[in-house]
Every structure is written in structure tokens, then in C-alpha cells.
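Form 7-S
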Amino acid sequence: MIARSPANGQGEDAPGEPWQLALQTVVTDCDELLALLRLTRQDLGIDRAQTFALRVPRAFVARMRPGRADDPLLRQVLPLMAERTVPAGFTQDPLAEAEAGKRPGMLHKFHGRVLLIVTGHCAIHCRYCFRRHFPYAATQPSRSEWAQAFEYIRRDPSISEVILSGGDPLAVPDRHLQWLIGEIEAIPQVRRLRIHSRLPVVIPARITCGLPALLAGSRLRASLVIHANHAQELDASVATALQPLRRAGVALLNQSVLLAGVNDQVEALSDLSERLFEIGVLPYYLHLLDQVAGAAHFALPDERVHVLREALLARLPGYLVPRFVREVARAPFKVPLLPPVPGRAKELRG
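Output:
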């Protein structure tokens, strides 16, 4: 069991940690990003008035291809005028998470597991994020409110897994994570800890020397779900950063979102699964786009999704094919995609 930290959860890692410096120097100006990529505003329909601001780490920018307005990494972060088009069915809370907030900082949507909103901060603003309108400021718990969340979990014997989410839970220092994990460990029926984070991909330096030991030292079985949508995101720095976690026995999974113009080709999805397995990460979920206001331009028709899924099944061994799922508000589980349309994979194979 992890030793409890006397901190109140707001402590800091060693001053000037590389990952903290990277968070402080993210690109937040569209003109700067375009200059770094040798692009101009004429190449793209940029929206300067977005309330969901541009935010992208420089390590992630370095993996984008200069001079390519269609770069799959750039498309994930650049605010476009297309975000102003909000079709019917696209809302600010597509998963009805306001109803699932049982305590400040906690969501309880599925049987047997709860989700803690560790922080509202993210290293990167993904334009398709289903929580891009989430009221983080109003839901960030105080120390006493955290105690209420832990007591809620303690009183429900069915809860065996706690998920740390956000924002991005790895945007807080290791000392804060140590405190949270220690509090969770003290709840007898909890057996598993899951962390969902994009930071190992966008700022690999976040995998500090202490993080693998912190997770390995817990009595909880730990898993880390990273978030990569394209093989181009997974360079050598990401692979190297993840190795200590593997050696520490942390289960490594990946979840993606199916995005038009980013990974909506069977080659892109296949390359992603192959690259993930190469660096020791198992493909887990491929989410169909949540219908969040501002992200409709990433949506694909279901017929196209079926074609992609069948083609991927025909190309890869089953363990490399992620589960195609859609999260439906108030549904008791992630809803799997219906069986594919027979015979359509040949259209993509030619």
C-alpha cells in the first residue's frame, strides 16, 4: 500500500520538472502554430473567436508535417470556422454527465466503477472533446468535498474500480496523485485503478521516474489508458516514456476517436493498431464521435463506420482490432457497433 502523503493534494513535484515546463510553454496562438508549420491563414478556415481556445504542446507540434494543411495531428487541434455549425442533436452535454454527478468531482455512470474528475486542466485542447463545455470550475472539489466522494464510494460495495479522469489527471503532480491513490486504497472493496490520460502521448516527459513506482507500489491493480488517434503521434519519445510503466506491471491500453480527415481510412487505423502493439500498448476502444457542439465536422456516417470496421477485421488479427463503441447518454454500458455489413470490406481493399 502507498504511504499516505500529508499533503492536501495540492503539492508539487520537484521544481522545474521538464513536463511542468512543457505545460507552461504550450502553443496557444494560431499564428504562431501556423508559422511553426510554414502555413498561412489562407490555407485554413481558422476561427479567431473560439471560446474553446487553441492549446497544444510543442512536443506534439514537432510531430506535425510542415506545409501540410491536412496533417492529421494539426486537424485535431486547430480551431476552424466549421465548429460554428451545430446540427440538430449536437449539444454541450452529449452524454448527460450533469445527471451523473453524484458528488463534486465525481461521476457515476456505470455499475461497479466511478470516475473522479481530478482536474479540469489539459495539456492539449482536442477539438472533438466531449467535455469541451464541461463546467470544471463549478465542479472542482475542495478537500472536504473530496472526502464526500470517497465516502460515497465506501458506502457502495458494488464499486470495485475507480477511474481518474479530467481534464487530464496527469496534469497534476505525482504528490497529488499519491494522496488520491492513498485515499482510494483505504476503501476496502476497490480493487482496480484506471487512469485515462493524453499526456503520455503529447508530453511524454510526464512519465516521471516516480510515477511507475507510485503505481506499482499500490495494492490496486493499475491500468493506464492513453489516447492516440493516429500512428504519427507515437514517435520514439512516447515509446521510450511508456517502457518503465510496462516494466512496473501497469496495463497499457489505448482509446481513440474515429475522426473524419484524421483516421477515417483503414490504412490509418491499421497503422495505429500495429504501432500501438509495437510499443506495448493494446488497442482498446475506438469511439464513434460524441455529438458535442463544435465537433460535427469530424462525424462519419454509420455506413462508413461499418465499412471501416469490416475492412479492419479482414486486415488485422482480432487482438489488434479495437472495440468500435458509441457512448449513449444514460445507457448502462458503452454500446458496441452493430455487426458489419457483409461484403463491403472489398470496397476499401480494391
